[in-house]
Amino acid sequence: MQPTNPTRDSNPKFLILPALPPDASAIIACGNAAFAASPLRAAIWPAAKAHLTPASEFQHWRIARKAGKLEGGNLLSFKAVLSEAPERLVGYAAWMAPGAFAEQGSIEPEGEQLPACMDGEVHRGFLAQLDRERERVWEGDSGFWYLAALGVDPEFQRQGVAAALLRWGLEQADAQGLPVYLEATPEGVALYHRFGFETVRVLETLENSFEVPIMIRQPQSKLPALEG
Ligand SMILES: CC(C)(COP(=O)(O)OP(=O)(O)OC[C@H]1O[C@@H](n2cnc3c(N)ncnc32)[C@H](O)[C@@H]1OP(=O)(O)O)[C@@H](O)C(=O)NCCC(=O)NCCS
Predict the structure, then answer these.
(1) Taking CA atoms, which of 7, 42, 113, 129 is between 20 and 30 Å from 52?
(2) Its domain of life (predicted)?
């Protein structure tokens, strides 16, 4: 399945477009800004290990990895850009369609070689925790949409960017009568509630110092109107 342009109904200040490999670097910059305060990021990329990989090498690895994900495969990725300056990326989202986990098992490739500056144990342990929880909830059923990523540049938050980015996947799910599943951040919960998600469980991670709300949205017949 290829992402189509889901711009309809969104804030005219922003355009929602499919994200492609050349967008990798801008998506990483946007993610860095959106998740700057994330304790999970700080644990996976600990400051104490930063010296183990040259910054340019790490950046190159991240861009190449992100570009690979944007090539297609199981991820359906979108970017939000300014209508008046489309080179300015202000948000991104990535979805996995129903059945994708049945093919792939996990969101990340198994046995991936990580740079020395990353804490591989925390990274793999967290992903395995998400995999276990997803398998526990769905028990082999792969009939759900999965929101794999969502981030908005802090400079453009609370202007409807995330709502516009969410819309495409929610519309697919509603049209197919399927639920949507995601692992939220504490910052994302209010947004997801607004769009009909409910918290079904809260995972404790990072030695019980960080909470990950697991949220599900049942299919609906109508999405809330967007403002702005
Ligand atoms: C969560 C996040 C994606 C929201 O993006 P956004 O573009 O600011 O969200 P929107 O403007 O589309 O918000 C739509 C509605 O969601 C709710 N909402 C969004 N952010 C909210 C917040 N911080 N507090 C309370 N409600 C919020 C509101 O109802 C909002 O409508 P309103 O502004 O008319 O009140 C953004 O804050 C972000 O990137 N945070 C850091 C990264 C992150 O946590 N990503 C989620 C990963 S699961």
Answers:
(1) 129
(2) Eukaryota
Selection from 24, 22, 5 nearest residue 14 by Cα: 5
3-state secondary structure of 127: helix
Cα–Cα distance measured from residue 72 to residue 67, given in angstroms and rounded to the nearest whole number: 9
7 pLDDT tier (thresholds 50, 70, 90):
very low
Concatenating the DSSP letter of every residue in 63-76 gives: HHHHHHHHTSTTEE
Q: 14-217 maps to which CATH number?
A: 3.40.630.30
Report the distance separating Cα 116 and Cα 57, nearest Å: 11
Ligand 1 atom at minimal distance to the Cα of residue 157: 8
The separation between CA 104 and the C-alpha centre of its own chain, rounded to angstroms, equals: 17
- Rounded CA-CA distance 176/180 in Å is 11
Q: How far is CA 121 from the centre of its chain?
A: 21
Q: What's phi and psi for 227, nearest 5 deg?
A: -100, 165
Which of 89, 165, 191, 214 gets mutated to test ligand 1 (max ligand atoms within 8 A of its CB)? 191
